[in-house]
Write a structure and sequence with these properties.
The complex is a heterodimer of chains A (about 140) and B (about 120). Chain A has a domain of about 90 residues: Immunoglobulin-like (Sandwich). Helices cover about 5% and strands about 40% of the residues of chain A. Chain A contains one helix and eight strands. A four-stranded antiparallel beta sheet of chain A has the order 2-3-8-7, with no helix packed on it. In chain A, strands 4-5-6 form a three-stranded antiparallel beta sheet, with no helix packed on it. Chain A is elongated, with a radius of gyration of 22 Å. Chain B is mainly beta and about 120 residues long. Chain B has a four-stranded antiparallel beta sheet with strand order 3-4-10-9, with no helix packed on it. The chains are: A mainly beta (about 140), B mainly beta (about 120). At the A-B interface, β1, β2 and β3 of A face β3, β4, β7 and β8 of B.
Chain lengths: ~140, ~120
């Protein structure tokens, strides 16, 4: 996402109750429906992550709106999936950044060379095929 | 002030939640960035009426039935945000763009609302 240089104020989180200064009178927002789930902390935030499975794969969804595809990295360290993102925000006279780092330990053996990741509408989807289960082997009983 | 329930509302079985949003201001515009992960352009509506903007979007995506949930943090991808913009916005010139799950709404300030330079005599 492009951050336009001409905007003068720093990007700050808002949940509708925390409008500041003269903005209050200008832009009187209704109270939020839900309690703020925003854990703003030193420009690090914690994207929501879901883990699913079907017969063949584990699927991870991460909601990381505003990141460009190129700002996201997906790594697999044995059975641990690591999702990272770093986005630089250029303000007029100072730069800041937003980053996230989350990992998911997958419950069972996987095929690490067949992992697929895509990013669409702010949602990262990673599909990790499960390792093929050992098929039962029939052993002939000899007389 | 708009009248709205404080809890998430359920209408036609869709439960909307309020998306996270950010506000920036310049001399000429007010910029609102609204996080709507999972919603595409076609699933999103922005209306300007009665000095309010209303953003509504809900993803048509459904989880495949054979998927088993092992861990879930995300909320339903149905969002509604109503913001009062008052008289100080040039309503006809409002623009919006969706990119990577973030809707950027540009609200140009009405001439009367812009800072005026006063000539000192």
């Amino acid at each position: 996402m492009e951050i336009n240089m001409k905007y003068l104020t720093r990007r700050q989180p808002t949940n509708g109750r925390q409008l500041w200064g003269d903005f209050d009178s200008f832009f009187n927002a209704p109270p939020p429906f839900l309690p703020s789930f925003f854990d703003w902390n030193n420009d690090v935030y914690r994207p929501a992550i879901d883990l699913f499975e079907d017969e063949a794969s584990y699927i991870v969804h991460a909601e990381v709106p505003g990141f460009d595809r190129k700002e996201i990295t997906v790594e697999l360290e044995k059975d641990r999936l690591i999702l990272k993102g770093l986005r630089k925000l250029n303000d007029d006279d100072e730069s800041s950044e937003v980053s996230f780092h989350r990992s998911v330990t997958l419950p069972d053996a996987i095929k690490s060379d067949k992992v697929n990741a895509k990013y669409e509408n702010g949602v990262l989807t990673v599909t990790i095929p499960k390792a093929e289960a050992l098929k039962p082997v029939q052993i002939e009983v000899k007389s | 002030m708009t009248c709205q329930p404080k809890e998430a509302t359920t209408e036609n079985t869709i439960t909307y939640s309020q998306p996270r949003y950010y506000v920036d201001q310049s001399m000429d515009d007010t910029l609102v960035q609204i996080e709507l992960p999972g919603v595409s352009k076609d699933e999103l509506n922005l209306t300007v009426e009665n000095k309010e903007i209303l953003v509504e979007g809900s993803a048509s995506y459904k989880l495949p039935e054979n998927w088993k949930v092992l861990h879930r943090e995300s909320k339903a991808r149905a969002y509604r945000l109503r913001l009062r913009i008052g008289d100080q916005v040039d309503q006809a010139a409002i623009k919006a763009q969706l990119s990577d799950g973030v809707l950027t709404v540009t609200l140009p300030k009405a001439e009367a609302a812009k800072p005026q330079k006063v000539k000192i005599t």
